[in-house]
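Annotators were shown the component list below and the corresponding predicted structure, then asked to write short factual statements about the assembly.
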Amino acid sequence: MRPKLLPLSETMHLIMLALRKPLHGYAIMQLVNEMSDGQVSIAAGTLYGALDNLKKHHYIELLSDPSDRKKVYQVTKLGEEILELENQRLKKFISLYEKGEG
Amino acid sequence: MNKYRLFIDPEKEEMWINKIQQDGYRLVSNTLDFIYTFEETDEKYITRTDYQNHMSKEKYDEYLNIHEEFGWEHIRGGRFGMTQQIWSKIEDGNDTLFSDRDSKINFYKRQMNFTGSLAFLFLIYSFIFELVTGNNLFLTSGLWDMQGTEFWRAFLFELPFAIMRFLPAILFPIAAVLFFVSYYKLDQAKKALEKEK
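Structure shown to annotators:
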């Protein structure tokens, strides 16, 4: 069976890709915006919900001390494995596209 | 400027606040659900409501922090899931709390849980008060056997108390119905979004 949340939604996928390096909330939104050529602009509530969900599944973690005002997140080891699975899945898709049919 | 209003439907509340804000005001606080304090401003403010279940201290910190980083100001709400979360910011084009369909649907689900629980709670209250009040609105013994002035004196004396006893029995069912209506509307909005999928 596939791990939870897979295949990742566009929002979660971009957030996880952004979090390969440690970032705080607003910076995640900016990087995702940049990575998607301005197509995806994540709102605050959506970002909070996605981070909460990813954290619940241990795909990302809170790096900063709970007492710090600024909350910094990063992908975990498990999260990296999840991204690798998505990478394989998408490569497979690309090869299907390139074969043209079937 | 204070305005007094009690909202059951969160979307109506949001619209009402934003309408007032279009006329050069901004919401600064909302106390006890029904007292809305506005002050004059030259900026254009936009307000959005959210609902969150009980959050741990750490989660609540993250919730506040992420919204504040995006420029939202927390007007009302706590971490125990007892009230709406009210957020305001100066309009800048990114004026919604939810940017994709899934998160908006999840918002409707959380909101419906809250509204549905309140509807159910008021329904139970209604039954309790129905049982307690029953037919014994007036407690003066032998009241209905009294005649003339004696009856009227006793009747009028107890009337305010009877009304007070009766009030919950009438208000609670009304509240229950209003919450169920609101629940239904949220469900319609959620289903409309799900159909777009």
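Statements collected:
1. Chain A touches chain B at residues 9-11, 24-26, 29, 40-52, 62, 66, 69-71 (CB under 8 Å).
2. Residues 58 and 76 of chain A are 7 Å apart (CA to CA).
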